[in-house]
Write a structure and sequence with these properties.
- The structure is a homodimer of 389-residue chains.
- Chain A is built from 10 helices and 17 strands.
- By secondary structure, the first copy, chain A, is α+β, with helices and mostly antiparallel strands.
- Chain A folds into 2 domains: 124 residues, Creatine Amidinohydrolase, Chain A, domain 1; 257 residues, Creatinase/methionine aminopeptidase superfamily (Creatine Amidinohydrolase), CATH 3.90.230.
- In chain A, strands 4-3-2-1-5-6 form a 6-stranded mixed β-sheet. A 5-stranded antiparallel β-sheet of chain A has the order 11-10-12-15-16.
- Chains A and B meet through α2, α4 and α8 of A and α2, α4 and α8 of B.
C-alpha cells in the first residue's frame, strides 16, 4: 500500500485536528475518495475516523489487504460505537461529516449508527486546508504540467484535414493515456460531469450546458451534453482544447486555441487580449490581491477591447475567469466578481479568460499559476499563440 | 433539445406518479442526471418537480436554452415556494427526494427552501421503476450490444506481443470512442469509480480494490486503485476484458477472456464452467425464478468442479454473479445469495460468473440477458470461447 511521506501526512492531519478542536467536535469522519487520499495516501470503502488528538482510526469495509494497528475491519457503520467502546473510547457527541460529498442516505445512516450525535459539515474546511499546497504537492503539479505540455505539442501532428472535433479529441485522449493519464479526474460538486476534458470547435463553443464549467458545448449524447459534438474542423474557424492535466494525483489545468488553416483578425485580436489579461494579472500581483479584483481587471480589459459580448461565452456567460486546482479540478479560490478570497502563498490556480466569437469559435489560453511570496509562477510552459493547424 | 418519445415519457411519469400518490406525498423532486434523463430525455441543473397529477414543472438554473411553458427559470431553490404560490399551487407538505443521490448539504438546503416539509426517499422506487424496461429501452440495449461486439472482435488485431494490459486497453478505448462511446458511464452508489472499464491480466486479477465491482485490480494510480496496472501480457496467462458497453444511453455489459498465446488446462476448464453456468441458467429459466437461486446454482457448479476457491475472486470474493443493467451499470435485480428479487419480463441483467486462477489470471464470460415471458434472450452475440491472442 502506497503511503504519503510522513511529514506530509502529519502536517495535513495536524491542520485538520486544529479545525476539529476549534469546531468543538469529538471526531471527524472522512469518506470521500479525494479527502481519504489527502489524509492517508490511499482509498478504501469505509470511514477514516479522526479525533482532535492522536492517530486516525481506519474503519475499513474493503479492500481486505489494508492492515495495521490503526485498521479496524468492519462490515457496516453500526459496528463503530461498539468497536470504540471496546478500545476504551467514547462514541462522539459532536461529529463532523463531509456533508457536501456524502449522500443524504449515507449521512443519516452514519449519524444513526453513531447514536445520533450532533453533526457539522467539514467539507468546506477541508477544501480550505487543501487550498494551501506544500512544496511536495506543488512539485507534482509542475510534473503534471510538463507532461500536459508534451501532449499538447503533439496536437498539430495528430490533426488531419477533414477531421471532426470528436475524431481529433480521440487521438488526443489516446496520447494522454499513453503519457500516463489515469483517465478520470476529480471534481467537486454535483454538476461537474465530464469525460477527459473539453474540445470546442466553431459555433459549438456557444452551446450552453447544464454543467458548471467555464464553457459548454452540445456533446454527443443527451446523457453528457458537454464539449465536442462532431463539428467538422472547418478552415477559418477555431478550436479550443481544454483537456485534463491529470498526470499525477495533483493536477494542472491548461487550455490552448488553434486556427483551422486560418482565422479572421477578430480571433487573433481576442486571443491576444486573453494573453494580455494573463500578463496584466501576473504583473500586478502582490500577496493579498483580491480574487474579485482579478475578475474585474479581466472584464474591464474585455470591455476596453470591445469584446464584452464574447467574454466567457455568448448565450450563457460564465461569471468567473479562474479557479484553484489540485486534487480536484475546481478548488478554492474562485476568481469571480463576488469572491471574498485573496491570493496567498501556496495556492495554485488556473486562469482562463476566454472569448467565444460567433461564426468563428472560442479563443484564449488557460495557464496554471503557483502563488509565491513575491510572484506568480506560471507552470505551463507551452506555446501560447493561436496556433495554425 | 432532444425529447423522449411521447409514449415513453407519459408511461414513465405515470408510474412515478402512482408511487408518489401511494407514498402520500404532494411532490417528488428529481435532480440526478440519470433520473432526469429517464423522465425528460435531457439533463439540466435544477429541479424536476413532479406532483401526483399533471405535468412536471422544470425549475431550471442552466442551461439557458431550455424553454417551454413547463420551464420555470430559477437561480436558487429558495425561489421555488414563491413561484409555486404565484401559479396558484401550494408548496408541498410531504416531498420525496433522491436521498441516495443528493448530497446531505443539497438535500437539507432543498428541504429548508421548501419550508421544511416532511421528506421521503424516492431513489429506490425510481430504481424499481427503471428495472422493468420498455421495448424502446431494450432495443437500445441490443443496439449497444451489437457495437460492443464489433469492438471486442477487433481485440486480436489490436494485440501485439510485448504489450502491457494498459497499452492494449488504450487501443480498445480508442476503438470504443471511434464506435460512438461517450466515455463516461453511469453507476449507482458511492463506491463505483471507474474509467472506461476493467482489464485484468495475470495475477493483477487477484488484487482487491475498494470499489463495488465483481473483480478488482491494482490500477495505475492511488486515486483510482482498480483494473489494469501495467502488467506485461505474458504467454501462459489470461486477460479478462470487461470494458463498458455505453454506445447508447441504455447500456449492455459484456466480459470476454483471452489466453496470451496459450494457457494451462485449468484456465480452459474454468472458462468452460462459466459458459456452462450461463447455459444452466438459461435452460432452467422461468418467470419468477429467484435471483438468489441463480447465485446458488452457480456457486454449486463451481464447487462441483472444485473451483470454489477461485469463484468470483481469491483474496476478496464478490458475493454476486450478476446485476441489472440499463441507464446505470448496476441496476436491480442483483444475483446474490441474499437477493429477494425474482426474474420478471422486461428486466435486463448481466450474468458474470468468473474465476480467478492464481498464477494464471481471470477467466469466464459475461453476457447481458433480456427477460421475456418464456425465455432469456442473450443480446451479446460475440465469440464465447477462451480466445487465443
Amino acid at each position: 500500500m502506497r503511503r504519503l511521506p510522513e511529514q506530509e501526512a502529519s502536517s495535513r492531519l495536524e491542520k485538520l485536528q486544529q479545525i476539529i478542536a476549534s469546531m468543538g467536535a469529538d471526531a471527524c469522519v472522512v469518506t470521500s475518495p479525494v479527502n481519504q487520499y489527502y489524509l492517508q495516501g490511499f482509498l478504501f470503502d469505509g470511514y477514516c475516523y479522526i479525533r482532535p488528538e492522536g492517530d486516525p482510526i481506519l474503519f475499513i469495509k474493503r479492500p481486505s489487504n489494508i492492515t495495521g494497528d490503526r485498521v479496524w475491519p468492519i462490515r457496516k457503520p453500526e459496528q463503530i460505537p461498539t468497536l470504540l467502546l471496546e478500545a476504551g473510547l467514547t462514541p462522539p457527541q459532536r461529529v463532523l461529516i463531509e456533508a457536501d460529498q456524502l449522500t443524504y442516505s449515507s449521512a443519516t445512516r452514519l449519524q444513526a449508527a453513531l447514536g445520533m450525535p450532533e453533526t457539522g459539515n467539514i467539507s468546506g474546511e477541508l477544501r480550505k486546508i487543501r487550498m494551501i499546497k506544500s512544496a511536495y504537492e506543488l512539485e507534482q503539479m509542475r510534473e503534471s504540467a510538463r507532461v500536459h505540455a508534451k501532449v499538447y505539442e503533439l496536437i498539430p501532428s495528430l490533426y488531419r484535414a477533414g477531421m471532426t472535433d470528436v475524431e481529433l479529441q480521440i487521438e488526443i485522449e489516446r496520447q494522454m493515456r499513453l503519457h500516463g493519464s489515469v483517465g478520470i479526474f476529480r471534481a467537486f460538486g454535483e454538476n461537474m460531469d465530464i469525460f477527459m476534458g473539453s474540445m470546442l470547435a466553431g459555433d459549438n463553443a456557444q452551446a450552453p450546458s447544464p454543467f458548471d464549467y467555464a464553457l459548454g458545448g452540445a456533446g454527443i449524447s443527451p446523457l453528457l451534453p458537454l464539449g465536442a459534438n462532431g463539428t467538422l474542423l472547418t478552415p477559418g474557424t477555431t478550436l479550443m482544447v481544454d483537456m485534463a492535466g491529470n498526470y499525477r494525483p495533483y493536477m494542472d489545468d491548461m487550455t490552448r486555441s488553434f486556427a483551422i488553416e486560418h482565422a479572421p483578425d477578430l480571433a487573433y485580436k481576442a486571443h491576444q487580449v486573453s494573453i494580455d489579461i494573463h500578463k496584466a494579472i501576473v504583473e500586478s500581483f502582490h500577496v493579498g490581491t483580491a480574487c474579485a479584483s482579478l475578475y474585474n481587471m479581466a472584464e474591464e480589459m474585455a470591455k476596453e477591447n470591445e469584446l464584452a459580448p464574447y467574454f466567457m461565452g455568448t448565450v450563457q456567460q460564465a461569471k468567473f475567469i479562474g479557479h484553484g486546482v489540485g486534487l480536484e479540478i475546481n478548488e478554492p479560490p474562485v476568481l469571480s466578481p463576488r469572491s471574498k478570497e485573496t491570493l496567498e502563498p501556496g495556492m495554485a490556480f488556473a486562469l482562463e479568460p476566454k472569448f467565444v466569437l460567433p461564426g468563428i469559435g472560442a479563443v484564449g489560453i488557460e495557464n496554471t499559476y503557483i502563488v509565491h511570496d513575491d510572484r506568480l509562477e506560471n507552470i505551463i510552459l507551452c506555446e501560447e499563440s493561436l496556433i495554425c493547424l
